[in-house]
Amino acid sequence: MIMISTKSLSALCARKEIKSHAELARLAKLQPVVLSRVVNGKSSPTMRTIDKICNALECQPGAILEWIPTPK
Questions:
Q1: Measured CA distances, 17 to 38, 44, 54 (Å)
Q2: Which of 46, 69, 57, 43 is nearest to 9 (CA)?
Q3: Cα 37 from Cα 17, distance rounded (Å)
Q4: What is the pLDDT of residue 61?
Q5: Is-contact 24 18, C-beta < 8 A?
């Protein structure tokens, strides 16, 4: 499963002086609930969501994504 890395996301937000997920959602033009569900692993991020987050953070997708193997 492809997930948002909360550790990487936090580091990038700190670098950009973004203090909350609500502020990131506003900058990324996402509904706060959408960002929350993706960050908390409740849903996988869509390419559009990844694009919006990367635009807000000025980063490459690989900077915020991690792959977690699906249990067999």
A1: 21, 25, 15
A2: 57
A3: 22
A4: 97
A5: yes
CATH number of the domain encompassing residue 53: 1.10.260.40
Domain assignment of residue 72, yes or no: no
Residue 14 backbone zone (phi > 0: left; psi -120 to 50: alpha; other: beta): alpha
Tell how strand 2-4 and strand 65-67 pair up. antiparallel
Domain hosting 58: range is: 2-67
Q: Number of folded domains in the chain?
A: 1
Amino acid identity for residue 8 in this structure: S
pLDDT tens across 47-64, in order? 999 999 999 999 999 999
